[in-house]
Write a structure and sequence with these properties.
This protein is mainly α. Helices cover 49% and strands 0% of the residues. The chain has 2 helices and no strands.
């Protein structure tokens, strides 16, 4: 979603390389299904009904201010 929201190219090559290394040709064939599934979930969570509706406003912005902590569910220790 982040790549699409910035109106730039989306780099997905790494997913195909990992799939090839892990499961060969069958793994590579499965990658588009995984990406489509993840996009459906992300679009549902952000309320986007079409890929064209994804914008920068669709993204959750994290504060860079150390005085403002991340929510407990996303805190990095």
């Amino acid at each position: 979603m982040k790549g699409l929201s910035n109106s730039g190219g989306v780099l997905l090559g790494r997913a195909f390389v990992y799939a090839l290394a892990a499961a060969g040709e069958q793994g590579v064939a499965h990658v588009p299904d995984l990406i489509a599934s993840e996009m459906k979930v992300a679009m549902t969570l952000t309320g986007a009904r079409a890929v064209g509706a994804i914008s920068r406003e669709s993204l959750v912005k994290r504060s860079t201010n150390p005085a403002i902590p991340l929510p407990a569910a996303t805190a990095h220790y």
